[in-house]
Amino acid sequence: MRTYSISEAAKKLNLTVYTLRYYDKEGLMPFVERTPSGTRLFKESDIGALKIIECLKATGMPIKEIKSFIDWCSEGDSTLQQRYDMFMERKASVEAQMEELRKTMEVIEHKCMYYKTALDAGTEDIHKNDKVGSSITN
Amino acid sequence: MRTYSISEAAKKLNLTVYTLRYYDKEGLMPFVERTPSGTRLFKESDIGALKIIECLKATGMPIKEIKSFIDWCSEGDSTLQQRYDMFMERKASVEAQMEELRKTMEVIEHKCMYYKTALDAGTEDIHKNDKVGSSITN
DNA sequence: ACTTGACCTAGAGTTAACTATAGGGATTAA
DNA sequence: TTAATCCCTATAGTTAACTCTAGGTCAAGT
Questions:
Q1: Residue nearest to nucleotide C19 (CA to C1')
Q2: ipTM
Q3: Domain B1-58 -> CATH class
Q4: Cβ contact B109–A91 (<8 Å)
Protein backbone atom coordinates (compact mmCIF):
# COMPACT_ATOMS: atom_id res chain seq x y z
CA MET A 1 0.00 0.00 0.00
CA ARG A 2 1.58 3.24 -1.26
CA THR A 3 2.15 6.11 1.12
CA TYR A 4 3.07 9.75 0.56
CA SER A 5 5.49 12.07 2.28
CA ILE A 6 4.17 15.34 3.68
CA SER A 7 5.39 17.27 0.64
CA GLU A 8 3.74 14.81 -1.76
CA ALA A 9 0.52 15.01 0.23
CA ALA A 10 0.73 18.80 0.19
CA LYS A 11 1.07 18.77 -3.60
CA LYS A 12 -1.89 16.42 -4.03
CA LEU A 13 -4.05 18.65 -1.83
CA ASN A 14 -2.80 22.03 -3.03
CA LEU A 15 -1.68 22.93 0.48
CA THR A 16 1.73 23.75 1.93
CA VAL A 17 3.62 21.45 4.28
CA TYR A 18 3.26 24.22 6.86
CA THR A 19 -0.50 24.00 6.62
CA LEU A 20 -0.53 20.24 6.92
CA ARG A 21 1.67 20.34 10.02
CA TYR A 22 -0.56 23.07 11.41
CA TYR A 23 -3.65 20.91 10.86
CA ASP A 24 -1.90 18.04 12.58
CA LYS A 25 -1.01 20.23 15.54
CA GLU A 26 -4.67 21.30 15.75
CA GLY A 27 -5.71 17.66 15.97
CA LEU A 28 -7.22 17.33 12.50
CA MET A 29 -5.09 14.35 11.48
CA PRO A 30 -4.86 11.85 14.35
CA PHE A 31 -5.07 9.03 11.79
CA VAL A 32 -1.80 9.84 10.01
CA GLU A 33 0.85 7.34 11.05
CA ARG A 34 4.57 7.83 11.49
CA THR A 35 7.79 5.96 10.84
CA PRO A 36 9.74 4.93 13.96
CA SER A 37 11.78 8.10 13.54
CA GLY A 38 8.70 10.36 13.42
CA THR A 39 8.21 11.05 9.71
CA ARG A 40 4.53 11.24 8.73
CA LEU A 41 3.25 8.66 6.23
CA PHE A 42 0.08 9.65 4.38
CA LYS A 43 -2.09 6.78 3.16
CA GLU A 44 -4.50 7.19 0.26
CA SER A 45 -7.36 7.20 2.79
CA ASP A 46 -5.64 10.00 4.73
CA ILE A 47 -5.60 12.10 1.56
CA GLY A 48 -9.32 11.35 1.21
CA ALA A 49 -9.99 12.42 4.78
CA LEU A 50 -8.08 15.63 4.20
CA LYS A 51 -10.22 16.29 1.14
CA ILE A 52 -13.28 16.08 3.38
CA ILE A 53 -11.60 18.48 5.79
CA GLU A 54 -10.99 20.87 2.89
CA CYS A 55 -14.62 20.49 1.90
CA LEU A 56 -15.75 21.44 5.40
CA LYS A 57 -13.39 24.41 5.31
CA ALA A 58 -14.95 25.43 2.00
CA THR A 59 -18.32 25.64 3.76
CA GLY A 60 -16.78 28.22 6.10
CA MET A 61 -16.40 25.88 9.06
CA PRO A 62 -13.64 26.92 11.48
CA ILE A 63 -10.87 24.47 12.27
CA LYS A 64 -11.96 24.00 15.89
CA GLU A 65 -15.35 22.72 14.76
CA ILE A 66 -13.76 20.46 12.18
CA LYS A 67 -11.72 19.03 15.04
CA SER A 68 -14.93 18.16 16.91
CA PHE A 69 -16.05 16.20 13.88
CA ILE A 70 -12.74 14.35 13.70
CA ASP A 71 -13.05 13.57 17.41
CA TRP A 72 -16.59 12.25 16.89
CA CYS A 73 -15.31 10.01 14.10
CA SER A 74 -12.82 8.49 16.54
CA GLU A 75 -15.55 7.92 19.13
CA GLY A 76 -17.58 5.63 16.90
CA ASP A 77 -21.29 4.98 16.47
CA SER A 78 -22.34 6.84 19.61
CA THR A 79 -21.71 10.12 17.78
CA LEU A 80 -23.59 9.32 14.56
CA GLN A 81 -26.39 11.74 15.44
CA GLN A 82 -24.00 14.64 16.06
CA ARG A 83 -22.24 13.97 12.78
CA TYR A 84 -25.50 13.78 10.86
CA ASP A 85 -26.71 17.01 12.46
CA MET A 86 -23.41 18.67 11.63
CA PHE A 87 -23.65 17.82 7.93
CA MET A 88 -27.27 18.97 7.81
CA GLU A 89 -26.18 22.28 9.34
CA ARG A 90 -23.40 22.57 6.78
CA LYS A 91 -25.92 21.92 4.03
CA ALA A 92 -28.14 24.72 5.31
CA SER A 93 -25.13 27.01 5.61
CA VAL A 94 -24.01 26.34 2.05
CA GLU A 95 -27.56 26.96 0.80
CA ALA A 96 -27.57 30.30 2.60
CA GLN A 97 -24.19 31.21 1.15
CA MET A 98 -25.37 30.36 -2.35
CA GLU A 99 -28.41 32.55 -1.87
CA GLU A 100 -26.25 35.44 -0.68
CA LEU A 101 -23.89 35.00 -3.62
CA ARG A 102 -26.87 35.11 -5.97
CA LYS A 103 -27.97 38.44 -4.52
CA THR A 104 -24.42 39.75 -4.66
CA MET A 105 -24.18 38.68 -8.28
CA GLU A 106 -27.28 40.67 -9.20
CA VAL A 107 -25.75 43.86 -7.86
CA ILE A 108 -22.40 43.17 -9.53
CA GLU A 109 -24.07 42.51 -12.88
CA HIS A 110 -26.00 45.73 -12.57
CA LYS A 111 -22.72 47.55 -11.99
CA CYS A 112 -21.12 45.88 -15.01
CA MET A 113 -23.92 47.22 -17.16
CA TYR A 114 -23.73 50.63 -15.56
CA TYR A 115 -20.02 50.92 -16.34
CA LYS A 116 -20.39 49.44 -19.83
CA THR A 117 -22.87 52.21 -20.66
CA ALA A 118 -20.71 54.89 -19.06
CA LEU A 119 -17.62 53.62 -20.87
CA ASP A 120 -19.39 53.67 -24.25
CA ALA A 121 -20.55 57.24 -23.57
CA GLY A 122 -17.15 58.28 -22.30
CA THR A 123 -18.68 59.70 -19.15
CA GLU A 124 -20.66 58.70 -16.12
CA ASP A 125 -22.91 61.71 -16.69
CA ILE A 126 -24.98 59.47 -18.94
CA HIS A 127 -26.51 58.14 -15.71
CA LYS A 128 -27.13 61.57 -14.19
CA ASN A 129 -30.94 61.26 -14.37
CA ASP A 130 -31.21 57.81 -12.73
CA LYS A 131 -33.38 57.66 -9.58
CA VAL A 132 -30.33 58.00 -7.34
CA GLY A 133 -27.29 59.77 -8.73
CA SER A 134 -23.91 58.58 -7.45
CA SER A 135 -21.01 56.88 -9.14
CA ILE A 136 -20.85 54.57 -6.16
CA THR A 137 -24.48 53.63 -5.74
CA ASN A 138 -25.49 53.13 -9.38
CA MET B 1 -32.63 65.91 3.61
CA ARG B 2 -32.54 63.38 6.46
CA THR B 3 -29.25 62.22 7.87
CA TYR B 4 -28.29 59.40 10.23
CA SER B 5 -25.91 59.18 13.17
CA ILE B 6 -23.22 56.54 13.11
CA SER B 7 -25.24 54.22 15.34
CA GLU B 8 -28.33 54.61 13.16
CA ALA B 9 -26.25 53.93 10.06
CA ALA B 10 -24.72 50.89 11.76
CA LYS B 11 -28.19 49.53 12.54
CA LYS B 12 -29.38 50.06 8.95
CA LEU B 13 -26.33 48.23 7.62
CA ASN B 14 -26.09 45.49 10.25
CA LEU B 15 -22.61 46.64 11.19
CA THR B 16 -21.16 47.94 14.45
CA VAL B 17 -20.10 51.55 14.98
CA TYR B 18 -16.57 50.16 15.43
CA THR B 19 -16.67 48.70 11.97
CA LEU B 20 -17.95 51.90 10.39
CA ARG B 21 -15.23 53.98 12.05
CA TYR B 22 -12.70 51.38 10.96
CA TYR B 23 -13.91 51.65 7.36
CA ASP B 24 -13.65 55.42 7.58
CA LYS B 25 -10.09 55.17 8.88
CA GLU B 26 -9.24 52.86 5.98
CA GLY B 27 -10.48 55.50 3.54
CA LEU B 28 -13.68 53.75 2.46
CA MET B 29 -15.97 56.66 3.34
CA PRO B 30 -14.39 59.94 2.19
CA PHE B 31 -17.88 61.12 1.19
CA VAL B 32 -19.39 61.12 4.70
CA GLU B 33 -19.65 64.67 5.99
CA ARG B 34 -19.30 65.97 9.52
CA THR B 35 -20.90 68.55 11.79
CA PRO B 36 -18.65 71.47 12.80
CA SER B 37 -17.85 69.53 15.98
CA GLY B 38 -16.78 66.42 14.08
CA THR B 39 -19.79 64.12 14.33
CA ARG B 40 -20.36 62.07 11.17
CA LEU B 41 -23.62 62.64 9.28
CA PHE B 42 -24.67 59.78 7.02
CA LYS B 43 -26.84 60.74 4.03
CA GLU B 44 -29.16 58.25 2.36
CA SER B 45 -26.67 58.07 -0.53
CA ASP B 46 -23.86 57.27 1.91
CA ILE B 47 -25.86 54.30 3.17
CA GLY B 48 -26.26 53.25 -0.46
CA ALA B 49 -22.54 53.52 -1.08
CA LEU B 50 -21.85 51.45 2.02
CA LYS B 51 -24.22 48.79 0.72
CA ILE B 52 -22.08 48.60 -2.43
CA ILE B 53 -19.01 48.31 -0.23
CA GLU B 54 -20.68 45.44 1.64
CA CYS B 55 -21.52 43.87 -1.69
CA LEU B 56 -17.88 44.01 -2.77
CA LYS B 57 -16.87 42.53 0.58
CA ALA B 58 -19.36 39.72 -0.03
CA THR B 59 -17.46 38.86 -3.21
CA GLY B 60 -14.37 38.35 -1.05
CA MET B 61 -12.67 41.59 -2.01
CA PRO B 62 -10.20 42.86 0.60
CA ILE B 63 -10.69 46.32 2.06
CA LYS B 64 -7.55 47.71 0.44
CA GLU B 65 -8.87 46.89 -3.02
CA ILE B 66 -12.25 48.35 -2.18
CA LYS B 67 -10.38 51.52 -1.25
CA SER B 68 -8.85 51.66 -4.75
CA PHE B 69 -12.33 51.56 -6.19
CA ILE B 70 -13.47 54.39 -3.88
CA ASP B 71 -10.42 56.38 -4.92
CA TRP B 72 -11.22 55.78 -8.61
CA CYS B 73 -14.75 57.02 -8.01
CA SER B 74 -13.32 60.29 -6.65
CA GLU B 75 -11.05 60.65 -9.69
CA GLY B 76 -13.91 60.80 -12.18
CA ASP B 77 -14.33 59.61 -15.77
CA SER B 78 -10.63 58.92 -16.36
CA THR B 79 -10.98 55.76 -14.24
CA LEU B 80 -14.11 54.34 -15.87
CA GLN B 81 -12.14 51.57 -17.56
CA GLN B 82 -10.54 50.42 -14.30
CA ARG B 83 -13.89 50.38 -12.57
CA TYR B 84 -15.50 48.41 -15.37
CA ASP B 85 -12.64 45.92 -15.36
CA MET B 86 -12.91 45.59 -11.60
CA PHE B 87 -16.60 44.71 -11.70
CA MET B 88 -16.02 42.22 -14.52
CA GLU B 89 -13.32 40.59 -12.40
CA ARG B 90 -15.70 40.48 -9.43
CA LYS B 91 -18.30 38.85 -11.64
CA ALA B 92 -15.83 36.15 -12.68
CA SER B 93 -14.79 35.66 -9.09
CA VAL B 94 -18.38 35.23 -7.88
CA GLU B 95 -19.05 32.76 -10.69
CA ALA B 96 -16.01 30.74 -9.58
CA GLN B 97 -17.14 30.83 -5.97
CA MET B 98 -20.60 29.61 -6.95
CA GLU B 99 -19.07 26.75 -8.88
CA GLU B 100 -16.93 25.78 -5.91
CA LEU B 101 -19.92 25.93 -3.57
CA ARG B 102 -21.83 23.66 -5.95
CA LYS B 103 -19.05 21.08 -5.79
CA THR B 104 -18.84 21.42 -2.03
CA MET B 105 -22.60 20.95 -1.79
CA GLU B 106 -22.41 17.67 -3.69
CA VAL B 107 -19.96 16.24 -1.18
CA ILE B 108 -21.97 17.53 1.79
CA GLU B 109 -25.18 16.03 0.42
CA HIS B 110 -23.44 12.72 -0.09
CA LYS B 111 -22.35 12.83 3.56
CA CYS B 112 -25.88 13.67 4.71
CA MET B 113 -27.14 10.53 2.96
CA TYR B 114 -24.27 8.47 4.31
CA TYR B 115 -25.09 9.47 7.89
CA LYS B 116 -28.83 9.13 7.40
CA THR B 117 -28.30 5.50 6.35
CA ALA B 118 -25.87 4.85 9.19
CA LEU B 119 -28.20 6.47 11.71
CA ASP B 120 -31.16 4.34 10.54
CA ALA B 121 -28.99 1.23 10.82
CA GLY B 122 -27.60 2.30 14.19
CA THR B 123 -24.06 1.73 12.97
CA GLU B 124 -21.61 2.96 10.42
CA ASP B 125 -20.73 -0.65 9.65
CA ILE B 126 -23.59 -0.59 7.13
CA HIS B 127 -21.11 1.16 4.83
CA LYS B 128 -18.26 -1.28 5.44
CA ASN B 129 -18.34 -2.70 1.91
CA ASP B 130 -18.27 0.65 0.08
CA LYS B 131 -15.32 1.13 -2.33
CA VAL B 132 -13.29 2.99 0.30
CA GLY B 133 -14.10 2.29 3.91
CA SER B 134 -13.57 5.17 6.33
CA SER B 135 -16.01 7.09 8.51
CA ILE B 136 -14.28 10.24 7.34
CA THR B 137 -14.06 9.68 3.60
CA ASN B 138 -17.53 8.18 2.96
C1' DA C 1 32.86 9.48 6.66
C1' DC C 2 30.46 13.24 4.82
C1' DT C 3 27.28 15.99 2.43
C1' DT C 4 22.69 16.83 0.86
C1' DG C 5 18.03 17.29 1.22
C1' DA C 6 13.83 16.13 3.28
C1' DC C 7 11.95 15.39 7.51
C1' DC C 8 10.94 16.89 12.55
C1' DT C 9 9.39 20.26 16.74
C1' DA C 10 8.79 24.50 19.20
C1' DG C 11 7.80 28.75 18.97
C1' DA C 12 7.79 33.40 16.88
C1' DG C 13 5.82 36.38 13.30
C1' DT C 14 2.21 37.83 9.94
C1' DT C 15 -2.16 39.52 8.10
C1' DA C 16 -6.87 40.94 7.80
C1' DA C 17 -10.63 42.58 9.84
C1' DC C 18 -12.33 43.77 13.34
C1' DT C 19 -13.20 44.91 18.60
C1' DA C 20 -12.42 47.24 22.70
C1' DT C 21 -10.58 50.78 25.93
C1' DA C 22 -9.22 55.22 27.64
C1' DG C 23 -9.82 59.80 27.73
C1' DG C 24 -12.29 63.63 26.25
C1' DG C 25 -16.08 66.79 23.92
C1' DA C 26 -21.00 68.10 22.74
C1' DT C 27 -26.14 67.91 23.26
C1' DT C 28 -30.25 67.19 25.76
C1' DA C 29 -33.53 66.42 29.89
C1' DA C 30 -34.48 67.49 34.61
C1' DT D 1 -25.83 72.82 36.15
C1' DT D 2 -25.25 68.52 36.24
C1' DA D 3 -25.96 63.89 34.72
C1' DA D 4 -26.69 60.86 30.97
C1' DT D 5 -25.86 59.60 26.55
C1' DC D 6 -24.35 60.12 22.59
C1' DC D 7 -20.22 61.36 19.72
C1' DC D 8 -14.96 61.65 18.78
C1' DT D 9 -9.68 60.03 18.30
C1' DA D 10 -5.76 57.26 19.20
C1' DT D 11 -4.18 53.17 20.23
C1' DA D 12 -4.05 48.56 22.07
C1' DG D 13 -5.86 43.86 21.90
C1' DT D 14 -8.05 39.85 19.63
C1' DT D 15 -8.76 35.95 16.52
C1' DA D 16 -8.13 32.74 12.85
C1' DA D 17 -5.36 30.62 9.89
C1' DC D 18 -1.59 30.33 8.45
C1' DT D 19 3.74 31.11 7.53
C1' DC D 20 8.29 31.06 8.73
C1' DT D 21 12.74 30.33 11.38
C1' DA D 22 15.98 27.97 14.24
C1' DG D 23 17.98 24.08 15.53
C1' DG D 24 18.15 19.36 15.15
C1' DT D 25 17.49 14.24 13.15
C1' DC D 26 17.74 10.80 9.61
C1' DA D 27 18.46 8.15 5.18
C1' DA D 28 20.65 7.98 0.73
C1' DG D 29 24.25 8.78 -2.33
C1' DT D 30 29.62 9.59 -3.23
A1: B18
A2: 0.92
A3: mainly alpha
A4: yes
| Interatomic CA–C1' length for residue A110 and nucleotide C14, angstroms | 37
Shortest CB distance from A104 goes to which of B45, B48, B94?
B94
E strands along chain B, which residues?
A: 3-4, 33-34, 40-43
Which segments of chain A have a pLDDT < 70?
A: 131-138
CA separation for the pair A126, A134 (Å, rounded): 12
A3-96 is classed CATH 1.10.10.10: no
Band of residue B132 on the pLDDT scale cut at 50, 70, 90? low
Give the residue range(s) of CATH 1.10.1660.10 domains in chain B: 1-58
- CB contacts of B109 in chain A (<8 Å) are 91
Neighbour-count burial of B2, counting CB atoms closer than 10 A to its CB (0-12 exposed, 13-18 middle, 19+ buried): exposed
Closest alpha carbon to A53 in A31, A38, A79: A31
CA B23, B25, B30 angle in degrees (round to 5)?
A: 80
